[in-house]
Amino acid sequence: MAVALTLCDRSDEMVRAWQRYFPLDLGVRIVKGNILTMPVQALAVPANSFGYTDGGVDLAISREIFDWQLQERLRAIIDRQFAGEVLVGQAFIVATGSHRFKYVVVAPTMRVPGDVSTTLNAYLAMRGILLTIDAHNRESHLDEERITSVAVPGLGTGVGKMPPERAAFQMYTAYRSIILSDLEWTRSLEKQVEYDRKMRERI
After folding, report:
1. What is the pTM of this model?
2. How far is CA 22 from CA 29, 87, 186, 192, in A?
3. Which residue of 7, 81, 106, 159 lies most exposed, with the fewest beta carbons within 10 A?
């Protein structure tokens, strides 16, 4: 089942960077605005590896969707399913019980709050989001359980200080490999090393 992807951020620079990498014919919706107003079934929640929701998008979602209970729920899931720490590149889905959004897709962009500007964390987080939604939909037996639309903010660009251009390129690279099945750049170690450098240095 195809999943409608919305990329939404309040930053003009982030929106322009996405527009440079995601062609119109892909059908990816790019919006400047408040991600909590998007008409989607699921929200991607950038987080840290331990589930502390003390800033940015995760704090807003905790306040507006979970009545401040998001951190408690995330910590319990991470303790139970991930031995206390979910790695960057992993993600998991939480049902909200809210009429506004059915699910959140939790994806760490950093182990602990800090500068991730020269890492591949936006790529890894985006890849985790897309793979986790795909796995969820494959495992769901009922259509109403499947995720059909998701909104994703800029990844690693807040506390993580990743330049929007770099984050957009990394997010598109993940989309290209998972959704478009364009794996040509993965066919040799030399190409992987080249892309690793490109994703870390793009400005």
Report:
1. 0.92
2. 9, 27, 20, 21
3. 81
